[in-house]
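Action item from last meeting closed. Structure (315 res):
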């Protein structure tokens, strides 16, 4: 089927919408790319229906959302696309292109939120022990990535785009690395995350080897520079390195991604008695309900321990 042509003024409006998200809401590059893809998908669908932005009703939007389900998209993906279209029409109302937001008259897709995968404390120890055995520059870099992710609960995008200026030093302690990082997360929200001594030790070792990852005489603002197009280590490359490490550690690569370490950080803190509000702050969640999913993970873990180890359960 031939892809329909998108009217030029739709694309112009889309660029203005994305610029608004970047300037007013502090949306990241990854978020902007996701919104752009979702809107292009929406544009193609309504063009095939012969609809216009100015006149499409909630019935046309409902048909689009139903089409997403027919295409086999997960409820979470449907919800994300619906959110993108909702904000898009809210923007059109603000710009005077529409007088209403037709998405508000449609039903949101239903579906349960899947529980995140987590590693056990023993498995994290096994992974870190394997990483520490590799003293090469690549090995030290990977250990530092793991320590920062698990020690601070960083999102992968926050981790790989860390800047050298975010590593603060204490002049009163001989220039020692400060035991915290200032992170700018989703929506431009800043938070302070602590670093434990092991993470600081790995970071010190890595900083001594950091020039190995740059061309001779080159400079870079990134903590984890790369000679690739982005200028810093990409999320995809970190994922590849982690998969290789998991295999060497005797762990199942299918069970763990870089984001799994963030989930493990939160779950292990909760299991150790940390307050849910503290975990919310450390993760940079704007809504406590997002953090509450870890209470379900912790409950499932405790239930599994009871089932496997309680003498009455074994009977």
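Sequence:
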């Amino acid at each position: 089927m031939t892809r329909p042509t998108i009217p030029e003024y739709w694309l112009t409006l889309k660029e203005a919408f994305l610029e608004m998200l970047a300037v007013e809401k502090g949306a990241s590059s990854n978020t902007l790319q996701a919104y752009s893809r979702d809107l292009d998908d929406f544009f193609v669908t309504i063009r095939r229906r012969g609809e216009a932005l100015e006149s499409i009703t909630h019935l046309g939007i409902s048909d689009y959302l139903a089409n997403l389900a027919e295409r086999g998209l997960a409820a979470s993906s449907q919800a994300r696309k619906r959110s993108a279209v909702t904000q898009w029409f809210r923007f059109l109302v603000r710009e005077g292109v529409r007088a209403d937001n037709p998405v508000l008259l449609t039903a949101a897709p239903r579906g349960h939120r899947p529980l995140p995968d987590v590693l056990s404390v023993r498995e994290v120890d096994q992974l870190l022990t394997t990483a520490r055995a590799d003293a090469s520059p690549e090995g030290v870099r990977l250990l530092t990535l793991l320590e920062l992710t698990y020690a601070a609960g960083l999102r992968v995008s926050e981790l790989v785009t860390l800047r050298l200026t975010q590593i603060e030093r204490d002049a009163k302690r001989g220039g020692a690395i400060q035991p915290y990082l200032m992170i700018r997360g989703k929506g431009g929200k800043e938070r302070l995350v602590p670093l434990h001594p092991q993470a600081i030790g790995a970071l010190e070792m890595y900083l001594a080897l950091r020039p190995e990852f740059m061309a001779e005489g080159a400079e870079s603002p990134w903590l984890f520079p790369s000679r690739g197009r982005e200028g810093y280590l990409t999320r995809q490359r970190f994922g590849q390195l982690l998969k290789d490490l998991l295999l060497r550690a005797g762990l199942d690569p299918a069970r763990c991604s870089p984001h799994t370490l963030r989930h493990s950080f939160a779950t292990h803190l909760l299991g150790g008695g940390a307050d849910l509000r503290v975990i919310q702050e450390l993760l940079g969640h704007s809504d406590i309900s997002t953090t509450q999913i870890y209470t379900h993970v912790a409950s499932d873990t405790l239930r599994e321990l009871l089932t496997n180890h309680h003498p009455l359960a074994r009977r």
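Note appended to the action item: The first strand starts at residue 169 and ends at 170.
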